[in-house]
Design a protein that fits this description.
Length: about 300
């Protein structure tokens, strides 16, 4: 049943509302991004998530592209991706965080196409909702948040939560597929090759930084790989390799449990000197300067 869309959606400022965790499912409301959310500090999301933007704007860099999120946008978050907030203005959102184990535990099974949309289509990770869709989804997410707070000993609690989550999940899939300008990803040879490259990159980037390694795994030339990847993502294979290595390096450098030598070793550089030259070439500053400029603990948003 569709609700009227003339409700005034509450927009409390300065608070974070977290539901009780339900073994892999959580709803959170971020009504104001504090100064603790530092720009240009990469972080890795811990779980899958749907982000519903309530108001404001934020520019986010993912592994492969820059995205601008605004009111009524839905953004898909992936746990193996690196995110970086570039800037934000009066940004607030509500999110559903979950993991694959929750889906399997609750017997939630998706078709191959639905599974691809939720878990793999990283090149299509956001879309805008129509006004009625936005209001319906917003209130459904608040309803799920309320149900997550039901006492654990309440009969049928898990079934109630499960059904509420399934309604949201399938409404999102339906909205995604009903976009007027939606074009399913072209599953041609270029797309398939790029997907294989990105999967290999996520597995091997800590040890292998040469395009020739990935081209060899795909039985093609480095030149051909870079050309194909750039057509699909807008960046060459080498640029994507550098992006993910530098993103990982920044995460490790921000963790004071690692010194610069251990970061270099973790990313398979011969020594700290080689790592320092690579880092400065790609960022314009040395690893030590980056650590000094990013030494304060910061809040991640996903």
């Amino acid at each position: 049943m569709q609700r009227t869309s003339n409700h005034n959606i509450p927009q409390e400022m300065g608070f974070v509302y977290n539901s009780n965790d339900s073994e892999g499912l959580e709803v959170s409301r971020i009504t104001h991004l504090s100064k603790g959310v530092c720009n240009n500090q990469p972080f890795r999301a811990a779980s899958f998530a749907f982000i519903l933007v309530i108001k404001g704007r934020i520019n986010i860099k993912t592994n492969f592209r820059n995205e601008t999120l605004k009111e009524k946008d839905i953004f898909f978050v992936f746990p193996d991706s690196i995110y970086e907030v570039m800037d934000h203005t009066d940004f607030s959102f509500i999110k559903i965080t979950f993991n694959k184990d929750y889906l399997s535990k609750e017997g939630i099974f998706l078709t191959a196409a639905q599974h691809y949309t939720v878990f793999q289509s990283k090149l299509i990770n956001k879309f805008s909702l129509k006004r009625d869709e936005y209001h319906d989804l917003y209130h459904d997410v608040l309803a799920l948040e309320k149900k997550l707070k039901i006492s654990a000993d309440m009969p049928y609690r898990n079934d109630i939560i499960r059904n509420s989550f399934i309604e949201i999940l399938y409404d999102l899939l339906l909205s995604h597929n009903n976009r007027d300008n939606f074009e399913p990803p072209k599953r041609d040879s270029k797309f398939e090759m790029t997907t294989k490259f990105l999967n290999l990159l996520s597995l091997h980037f800590k040890k292998e930084r040469l395009v020739i390694f990935y081209a060899g795994k795909l039985f093609i030339t480095p030149r051909h790989l870079s050309q194909v990847v750039k057509l699909v993502t807008g960046k060459t294979a080498g640029e994507l390799i550098d992006d993910i290595v530098i993103g990982e390096a920044k995460i490790l450098l921000a963790n004071y449990a690692h010194n610069i030598s251990s970061v270099a070793e973790a990313l398979n550089f011969a020594n700290a000197s080689f790592f320092g030259k690579y880092f400065k070439k790609n960022t314009g500053i040395s690893p030590s300067v980056y650590r000094m400029e990013n030494r304060l603990p910061h809040q991640t948003i996903f």
